[in-house]
Design a protein that fits this description.
Layout: H1 3-13, E1 17-22, H2 27-38, H3 52-55, E2 67-74, E3 91-92, H4 101-118, E4 123-127, H5 134-141, E5 145-146, E6 152-153, E7 161-168, H6 187-191, E8 197-198, E9 202-203, H7 209-215, H8 225-228, E10 231-233, H9 237-240, H10 258-261, H11 273-279, H12 285-304, H13 306-317, H14 322-334, H15 338-344, H16 350-363
Parallel strand pairs: 3-10
Antiparallel strand pairs: 1-2, 2-7, 4-7, 5-6, 8-9
Bound molecules: iron/sulfur cluster (2 copies).
Length: 364
């Protein structure tokens, strides 16, 4: 039997949709990515600009690489029940509702690598943070298309899909490109709260809430605050409205955890980073860390529940993280407590003090 067929069956049994992609990516995908970088749309994610040509051609590193399997695990689960907490609950992007999908996908990739060896080939699996652009191989597979929101979509599962990649030593014939099924729809563009979706399926990370709330390590610009609404971690606004996401395909083994889908915003204060790491072990929250989530939580409370924010401010203003203290000082200004902001100025370093002073003018 065709070895790629054997691997496809193994991956399908584990809950993946499987697509085949050639080793050689179309030049247009690299050009599009380089244009995105050249325009500065990667914001502070400098690591994305390292060796793009090499990342788009894994054969330089793996000369045996001849064809790829793109593995897609859908996660359009229904919302888990909302715990008590009302406006003090933050919203989280759907992909982060489960306890680490990497931990679930990695053993499947290991099983596929082992199967490859038995079939006389070589394979290397990647999920998410490897050097290889999974989305570009997904596009090259012809199994779906790049939507206006920059996400890869398929007709059977929409865009809510975890992607992994298996590089193999067996060649794959290029399939024709998938037709663009966005048609005249523009819903993701008009629903984006920050206008981050620009032409050609590109998202400008400098405006995207997913970047600010997950990847950004510093202070969040004040003009972004009101756009965050109740988004604590990530943002799904451009996916929620997508008509292709009404299909609700799910991978049964991945169960959403209500504590991850609806975290209480007060959970990130008065706890050590170590206790936070224990509580959220295996979750995507660890990428942002406790200070990042506490920073975001203050902004969400400022947008949604100023009374709860006021109660939390004394604790937040004495937080060990200067990022949290600076955000708390700015949040005090947003809650109509400028005297509290002024009183905090002396406790802040120069950059944080300047941020809090800007907040006094911004929320004035
Ligand atoms: S994730 Fe949110 S902010 Fe980013 S492009 Fe989509 S809708 Fe806009
Ligand atoms: S919302 Fe509309 S335009 Fe955006 S990705 Fe979905 S189908 Fe395409």
């Amino acid at each position: 039997m065709d070895p790629l067929e054997v691997l496809t069956r193994v991956a399908s049994r584990r809950g993946f949709f499987v697509y085949r992609a050639p080793a050689s990516l179309p030049d247009a995908e690299l050009s599009r990515f380089e244009n995105w970088l050249a325009a500065g749309m990667n914001a502070g994610m400098d690591y994305l600009a390292r060796n793009p040509a090499e990342r788009f051609d894994p054969r330089r590193r793996f000369p045996w690489f001849a064809g790829a399997l793109v593995l897609a695990a859908p996660y359009a689960d229904a919302e888990p029940p909302r715990p008590e907490g009302g406006l003090r609950l933050g919203r989280v992007a759907r992909y982060a509702w489960v306890r680490d999908y990497h931990l679930w996908i990695a053993p499947v990739l290991a099983e596929l690598e082992e199967t490859c060896g038995r079939l006389g080939g070589v394979c290397k699996g990647y999920v998410d943070h490897g050097p290889v652009p999974e989305w570009a191989y997904a596009v090259a597979s012809g199994g779906g298309w790049l939507g206006r929101n920059g996400l890869w979509l398929t007709q059977r599962a929409g865009s809510y899909q975890y992607l992994a990649l298996l590089l193999t030593s067996w060649p794959v014939e290029p399939a024709g490109p998938h037709p663009d099924r966005c048609g005249s729809c523009n819903s993701c563009v008009t629903s984006c709260p920050t206008g981050a979706i620009v032409a050609g399926g590109m998202v400008d990370a400098r405006r995207c809430l997913s970047y600010w709330t997950i990847e950004h390590r510093g202070l969040i610009p004040l003009e972004i605050w009101p756009k965050m609404g109740d988004w604590l971690f990530g943002c799904d606004d451009c996916q929620v409205v997508c008509p292709w996401n009404r299909r609700r395909a799910v991978t049964p083994l991945l169960e959403p955890d209500p504590e991850l889908a609806w975290p209480n915003l007060e959970n990130f204060f008065g706890v050590s980073n170590r206790a936070f790491a224990r509580r959220y072990a295996g979750s995507a929250f660890l990428r942002t860390g406790r200070p990042g989530l506490a920073r975001n939580a203050l902004i969400v409370l400022s947008n949604r529940d100023p009374e709860a924010l006021k109660k939390l401010l004394p604790l937040a203003l004495s937080d060990p993280s200067s990022r949290v203290r600076a955000t708390a000082a700015a949040a005090a200004a947003s809650a109509g407590l400028p005297d509290l902001t002024r009183a905090a100025l002396d406790t802040l370093d120069e950059q944080a003090r300047s941020y809090a002073e800007q907040a006094l003018a911004f929320f004035g």
